[in-house]
Amino acid sequence: MVALRAFIDESSDGHLLVLGGAVADVASWAAFSAEWGGILPLGPIRKDGKRHFKFSEMAGRTDDMPAFWHVLQQHVRFLVASVIEIPALCAAQSRVKTVSPIKWGPHCDPWIVAFRNLMDGFHRRRGEFSTLLDDGDKVDFYFDNHSNERKIVDGWEAYLAGLSPEERSRFGLKPRFEDDTEFLPLQAADFVAGLSRSTGRTAQGKAVNEILTRHGKRKIPLLVLSMKEDALVPWLASRLHNQGWPIHDAKTGQRLRGADDPVS
After folding, report:
1. For the chain, where are the alpha helices, taking DSSP H only?
2. Fewer CB near the last or first residue (10 Å), C or N of the chain?
3. Bridge partner list, 83
4. How far is CA 34 from CA 31, 38, 73, in A?
5. Rounded distance between C-alpha atoms, residue 191 and residue 160, angstroms
6. Does domain 3-89+97-237 sit in CATH 3.40.630?
7. Rounded to the nearest 10 degrees, what angle do helices 185-198 and 203-215 cross at?
8. Where are the domains of the chain?
9. Tens digits of residue pLDDT in 167-205
10. pLDDT band at residue 264, thresholds of 50, 70 and 90?
11. Distances 70 to 41, 74, 185, 213, 259 between C-alpha atoms, Å
């Protein structure tokens, strides 16, 4: 069993929200950090005077991006991206109906939905990347600092309690939230998240993707976890406290949950 870490960051443009990043073992991340730190002089300057990598600030510096991508290619096992279309989430919420008014709570936040999609999908679809992970491997997740940290940390044990013993066994430690100036792999996660969001949607994303494809030394496996509107509807319904009333889909008329079905 190998100690693995996934570093994850967010990228959003108001239409798509992506939680994306990369997975590698501890030794590989240490080697990555040493190399990445050596090329940070190519990155933009923060307000505190330090150099860093920020995808959104590299729009005019596409010639420098391959150097960072090369370091990523050299050290990570695979990439992962949880993708939520914000309009699809809103449309799905409008379809979920019950007798009493619905209080969505955290599930009105696309970041929280993307987080749950990442956690659920990553561990339930491990068979799709079994060549990259052994059955006993556990992955610890590190996120860039975010306002949702408290919600995630406080609700973690309750989340695990709702899983089967087999599913729980695949999880590592409780998620951590850190500063990307101290944990350089989080800057690589920003790269993956920004590229995943912008490729095919913006001129910058297309240009960067073409440059990286030309300079690529190795194609990194990518696991994309996404939920469209029709998948979000039953997923949202399964998380509602329906107070004794059945829940249905206003678009199709389909019954989504009975009055006494448990919340997942």
Report:
1. 26-39, 65-75, 86-95, 110-124, 149-161, 165-168, 185-198, 203-215, 229-237
2. N
3. 18, 226
4. 5, 6, 14
5. 29
6. no
7. 120
8. 3-89+97-237
9. 888 888 999 999 999 999 999 999 999 988 987 565 555
10. low
11. 16, 6, 14, 11, 54
